[in-house]
Write a structure and sequence with these properties.
7 strands
Length: 180
Amino acid sequence: MSEIVYETLAAEKLSETLEDLSAILHGCVKKGASVSFIHPFSKEDARRFWLEEVFPKVEKGETTLLVARADNRLVGTVQLQTGLPPNQAHRCEVSKLLVHPDYRKRGIATTLMENLEEEARALGKSLITLDTRSGDQAEPLYILLDYKIAGRIPNFARAADCDRLDSTTYMYKLLDQTDL
């Protein structure tokens, strides 16, 4: 098993990671991940997402992009979204925790989330929120990381590979445990 290295991507490194990030997203959607996209979903669709949706937010400082690297390529990623309204400056959101299907079950998602939480604390955030498809493999991971379920919404999003409507689970974690 190759060594996995974790880092926060600087804005100036975004363009050199586009192909790897696109391959991760494309591979996850192809395997049925519920991350906003439905089939057909091309590699060009994945590239467009990073170029139009994520990279501009990273460049503006509204999103932090954390990645995992192995075998000379990116194999996992998660976004910490901090570009929120002024009355929500104390919190942040998790978006698109993705691990390439070939690299799953190696602890990459857990370590990415732990690094994301460290980054959130360093930015002075006290609350992290996220949503995930109810019953998905990510839900137990978040629970193991001490995220609490705030609620579930039925029929929230269409499945990537069929017309089924899935529920979503909203979760949160207080980083400043003195508020409990």
